[in-house]
Amino acid sequence: MKLSIETVILLVVTIAIAACVAVWATGYMGTAMAGTADFVASIDQCYTDHMYIRIKNIASVDIVGVEVLVEGTSATVTDLSGVAISSSNPIKAGDMVQLNVTGYTANVGDRLSITVKCTFADGKVVAKDLTAIVKSI
Does the first or last residue of the chain, that is N or C, have fewer Cβ atoms within 10 Å of its Cβ? Predict the structure, then answer.
């Protein structure tokens, strides 16, 4: 069987396109099956000794831990009923919660650097940096 040069080129190009599609699909599907880990955080109110942070879990897995650093120092974080976020009290995928942060002191007018770190059920940790200005009650 004799193949023309055009047939050989067409065959090579077809195989190359199929390989590219297979590599793309494998990478895309692997990422989709692994799930995502991300959240949105905002500061509702910030006072001299406590603040309220709102977290929206936009991931496909639960958030099982939240750590807040105020000016680099770890603060206490609980939901509004006083319970810490954990595997037994997670922030479910798609949920939004308001959290109470205590254990720091600041003066009215201070600008605070805040880091919110969320640990997800799959072990991934994502951190977001925020800034807040302390208000009087």
Answer: N
